[in-house]
Amino acid sequence: MRVQPFRMERWQSTWEHRVRYNLSESGVEPLTVAGLLALCGSGGVAAEGLDRLPLGYGQTNGSDALRARIAALYPGASDAEVVVTAGGAEANFACAWRLMEPGAAAAVMLPSYMQLPGLLASFGVRALPFHLRAEAGWAPDLDALAAALGEGARAVVVTNPNNPTGRALTGTEMDAIAELADRHGAWILSDEVYQGAERSGVETPSFRGRAERVLVTNSLSKAYGLPGLRLGWVVGPADAVDDLWGRTDYTTIAPSTLADRLATLALAPEARARILARTRAIIARNLEVLSGWLGARSDRLRWRAPDAGAICHVRYDAPLGSVELAERLRVEQGVLVVPGDHFGTEPYLRLGFGLPEAELRAALDRVGELFDRLPTGPAGGVSRP
Hints:
The protein is built from twelve helices and 14 strands. The chain is α/β, with parallel strands linked by helices. The protein folds into two domains: 7-33 and 272-369, Aspartate Aminotransferase, domain 1 (Alpha-Beta Complex); 55-268, Aspartate Aminotransferase, domain 2. Helix 3 (64-71) runs parallel beside helix 9 (257-266), helix 4 crosses helix 8 (238-248) and helix 6 (142-150) packs parallel to helix 7 (171-183). The longest helix is centred in the last third of the chain and has 27 residues, at 269-295. Residues 381-385 have low confidence and may be disordered.
């Protein structure tokens, strides 16, 4: 097995703590433990008994209480249909490991968070892309999906709401994807980590229940502002979930006991509502700042406001590729962004806007300073999709 380099993650992990301003993050300003407990209505660490929590191995597929809280988010699901993982990354890894064999094919939504495409390449799986089309407001090319399934794709890999575009599929688009998957007997693997971070306040529906064979992954990292807990999950048919649990015996064995307890508190209905309200408030406030900044530069920066998440995919006008542009922003301006090249798109930058408002304004000022020095003209890369 030859591991495909995960360029975006390596770029972020190398530099995110070594720059003044980090616009590469796709979540909102993280909660502190004290902040989380306050939103949970807790009296604090001692009141919850966290200072006396034994830090041994917990239930390896997630505690019964946590799996029940997660199952309650999916109508008709039981705790037997949930396995808890070390973040969404392990959830996606375990699902890809189960669904894919060398020589198989998968229909892959692009652009997308590139963990799953990278895993498929590492597993020797042939990726058959169906693109979100920029000229159509990032709507999916369903004809390309149908063609991929006709070529033998055994799974449809989606991120919904999408990363990097922030676009959420419509109900009609989701139904069409589900119908195509069912017609060809394919699985849907749906990464739904931005669910709950919608600008409208209306949660994006899950693919669970929309098709016969569905595995849904999610985590507390993005919509909940709790990436440091490294707490994710998979929801799917009980037999598939049991198989995934067996696979985590070879990876992390068990989720963190402390993360399991905090996640159980966070997913209580009232606490969850307060946490997601905080996230949406941050997105609404900061999107207004970003929108004003982009509007003042509409001659060379074009974008579609995201439906969900603190991210936007910005097309720029400058005569250099996105990797070179991102490197100049890092070195000259102390600002980290994600180059569109890491998603297979040029000329784009992904900007995260979930950090504190004052920091966002300062970071955008620095990005603007570089653009003010750059000439206009087409980028050196190929524009896709």
